[in-house]
Amino acid sequence: MKATGTEPARGGLRAILFDIDGTLLRAARRLEYRELMCAMLAQIFGTEGRLREVDFSGRTDPAIYREALAHAGIDGERLREAIPRLEEASVEIVHRMARTGPAFLLCPGVRELLEALSADDRFVLTLLTGNLERLAHAKLQAAGIGEYFRVRGAYGSDDEDRDRLPAIAARRLAEHLGRPLPAERMIIVGDTPRDIACARHFGARVLAVATGHHTIDQLGRHSPDALVPDLSDTMRIVEILAGA
Is the pTM of this model over 0.85? Predict the structure, then answer.
């Protein structure tokens, strides 16, 4: 896969697995969102822990919560048991924010790209995100792009370790398609080095996009298959993905 978008497609269906935060959308009121998440942890666990200090970038939600709450003695078992409550409360935060204005903003070119890919039978769209599953879809609905993701992907609620998510997504894609899809026909689109690493771990391709907290140069050091500043050049991105 070449960032120039000049390589011709070699045939065959390709699954495009999108990360969400920093790739498809950004929080419109990031500080408010973080405050509400802190309040959620305090309500469920009696402490917000160190959530204000944790780096969210490319992490699964359970991994973020584990790090934030470790010093308070919240172990993995207690955290796993609380996942349904965390998921429900997180979704309610999104709904509450959406009632008072935009909760999330699309990154450049996202809607146009999703429209083009959805209309092209060379591609099937799904998700590979660290978000809890219901939270992921609440964010997409709030941003107005939920309709493009009808095939179940992989989520932070499936596994805390992001590197295990591509295999989960592959199994679900196989169930949806009625046949397995080779790893090299799966293309992860993400904005962090962790997205690149999880693609490499599974043998998938990866298109890195610098719309999150990492620059083009920072992402380039991890040698993604293709690298773009954003997703605004629809034709070029489609050609890159088709040539994977």
Answer: yes
